[in-house]
Specification:
The chain is 33% helix and 27% strand. It is of the alpha/beta class and 308 residues long. The protein binds alpha-D-ribofuranose.
């Protein structure tokens, strides 16, 4: 089906400089392990998702904050090179956000985030971008910037019926579930358990209970990613499972972000829900084939070839 390949997507979120240590295995509490190497890469959930959407052909505007330091300047240039509109990325008096990431030989990871400039994206600053959100085909948000700012963005989108895609990572205990409308909630199994207080493995057996949970939380569609297992998609109409794309992962950092960005692009283009998930599954899988959150994010053509 021919679709509008330049649908406008607004992403409100974080930008980090990732310091990635490759280790044989992740350290336990109180343990020291040696790394084989250290790399510095662009990351942050907001920018990763914006990049994934842009590489899938969306016209992306990123709203966020960078520090007034060399990392911030490099990051802005990088986003411009990727074709992302950064006129709503503010430079603030702070260091650019950063993240310490350990990746083991199985591709599993541990991440510590230092918010830096991301913490200075205020709700009043966000409100100044209201017109951008109100004309978008979709709003994509995560929780690595202040909660009140994300909630403000969602309210602006809700006011104009702009579809909201929320990837609530990292989970925030005070998110006002039920007070705003989330068109699509993208979570992994652990996040689903934390938000809904129930194991998503049981959705099939407890369909009515899960549908009631969605209504209570203000969520229209729930998408649960489960690594290599099929992705669960729950709506008022029922539960569907969408097969994943099999790969041998090298580094899973940014795979979830790639899923969210690819999914939102197709949603913004008006694609049917399960088709959005099929593309996102393949994009997320391909993203694990390179080290670094953004290095492996595939372009639309790569995903198309993988799906073919
Ligand atoms: O989701 C992966 C991202 O989480 C990394 O790029 C890191 O910056 C943290 O935000």
């Amino acid at each position: 089906m021919a679709r509008n390949s330049a649908a406008s997507v607004v992403v409100v979120g974080s930008m980090n400089v990732d310091l990635i240590a490759s280790v044989k295995r992740l350290p336990g509490p109180g343990e020291t392990v040696a790394a084989a190497g250290l790399e510095k890469r662009f990351g942050g959930k907001g920018a990763n998702q914006a990049l994934a959407a842009s590489r899938h052909g969306a016209q992306v505007t990123l709203i966020g904050c960078l520090g007034d330091d060399p990392d911030g300047r490099d990051y802005r240039n990088h986003l411009r090179r990727e074709g992302i509109n950064c006129s709503s990325v503010n430079t603030v008096k702070s260091g650019t956000g950063s993240a310490f990431i350990a990746v083991d030989t199985k591709g599993e990871n541990q991440i510590i985030v230092i918010p830096g400039a991301n913490a200075l994206l205020t709700a009043p600053a966000l409100k100044m971008q209201r017109s951008r959100i109100e004309v978008a085909k979709a709003l994509l948000v995560q929780l690595e910037v202040p909660l009140e700012t994300v909630v403000e963005a969602i309210k602006l989108a809700n006011g104009r019926e702009v579809p909201v895609v929320l990837n609530p990572s990292p989970i925030h205990p005070d998110f006002p579930w039920g007070k705003v409308t989330i068109n699509v909630l993208i979570v992994n199994g652990g996040e689903a358990k934390e938000i809904f207080g129930a194991d998503p493995a049981d959705i099939g057996e407890q369909l009515d209970a899960w549908k009631a949970r969605l209504v209570e939380k203000g969520v229209r569609t729930l998408v649960v990613t489960r690594g290599e297992k099929s992705t669960l998609v729950l709506t008022e109409a029922g539960l569907k499972k969408v097969a994943t794309h099999k790969v041998k992962p090298l580094d899973t950092v940014g795979a979830g972000d790639t899923f969210a960005g690819a999914f939102t692009t197709h949603l913004a283009e008006g694609a049917p829900l399960l088709e959005c998930v099929r593309w996102a599954n393949a994009a997320g899988a391909l993203a694990t084939l390179k080290v670094g959150a953004q290095e492996g994010i595939p372009h639309r053509g790569d995903v198309q070839s993988a799906l073919a």
